[in-house]
């Protein structure tokens, strides 16, 4: 990770790539799909304390329910957010009783009489207005869909008047964060080291092409600040940073050298690769893994979207991030998150609390979490079509 300062949220510099799951519809089959990489299943199994067979069944179950939701949305049913609960049901916020019945018929679990995703996003924007210039006293804020509330994490010692104003907002919960806050943490293959010249490193993210045919790599924006030259693990020049939105958003772009090729698979750092077949914003609660140069292959689940985070040393908050329970450390930034075979995003940052993820261990440090930049938003912003395999 490229440490940006002594306080607040930490960016995990390293650009790595991965893929997530798209999905069909129906209940999970008795025999799981054989499409998953064995390393992915073993790491998921270690993280979730289940067998590799059960990990494959879980991925199939999630994939099938997500597909059911996509199919019913394609038929015009309006929904307002969805998440997997602890029992594995895909809970969907429904507009009315008729919509709820349609969701039940599709094997989904409807929820009514809640604020829902759109109202939570609006409430989160209002929270940002209340915080205003006091952003240096806040570590993060954003919706928690399952709890149907917006959670604000303030720095220890935050102004009491600010805490009272935030706590007075209906639907807002205020918590106190950790002392140091959060910090940013040849072939071009997602998950391998992205060596920044001079002196720091990230992990390689998702390659793709622009509308005019340029070969590029989507990465964390803080990894390519200053348009650095970029080398691979063998010290060979593979590209140069050409664009970044950091700190307002943590997305950036690397131009891949003409003689090099972006590959549509992720290096698990265990001698295997995972194919990238598409990209999405999978529902909250979906299982996913990430590849990174520092911690290798670690897994967890998505916990929130539309999170706003203030990183160490920054006076501007970074918006639009997703949050997960995946363990990351410095040097993992840019590292790609994948659900099944569907790309989800690139590592942005995590807590600056000295936690140790281990390497390729799967299981996470107690209470660990990380933020990532959703890849679909970065691809849309830069007009990039991801490379698939």
Walkthrough of the structure:
- With 389 residues, the protein is of the alpha+beta class.
- It has one domain.
- It contains 6 helices and 27 strands.
- The chain has an 8-stranded antiparallel beta sheet with strand order 11-10-14-15-16-13-12-27, covered by helices on one side. Strands 21-22-23-26-25-24 form a 6-stranded antiparallel beta barrel. A 3-stranded mixed beta sheet has the order 2-3-4.
- A hairpin with a 4-residue loop joins strand 5 and strand 6.
- Helix 1 packs across helix 2.
- It is globular, with a radius of gyration of 20 Å.
- The N terminus is likely disordered.
- This is Peptidase S1.
- GO terms for molecular function: serine-type endopeptidase activity.
Summarize the SSE layout with pairings:
Elements: E1 10-12, H1 38-48, H2 52-74, E2 79-84, E3 90-94, H3 97-105, E4 109-111, H4 116-131, E5 138-144, E6 149-154, H5 160-167, E7 172-176, E8 182-184, E9 187-188, E10 193-197, E11 200-203, E12 206-210, E13 215-219, E14 229-231, E15 237-244, E16 252-256, E17 261-262, E18 265-267, E19 273-275, E20 278-279, E21 287-292, E22 296-309, E23 318-324, E24 336-339, E25 342-351, E26 370-374, H6 375-382, E27 384-386
Parallel strand pairs: 1-8, 3-4, 6-7, 9-17, 20-25
Antiparallel strand pairs: 2-3, 5-6, 5-22, 8-25, 10-11, 10-14, 12-13, 12-27, 13-16, 14-15, 15-16, 18-19, 21-22, 21-24, 22-23, 23-26, 24-25, 25-26
Please tag this protein with its features:
34% strand; 389 residues; alpha+beta; 6 helices; 8-stranded antiparallel β-sheet; 6-stranded antiparallel barrel; disulfide bond; Peptidase_S1_PA_chymotrypsin; disordered N terminus
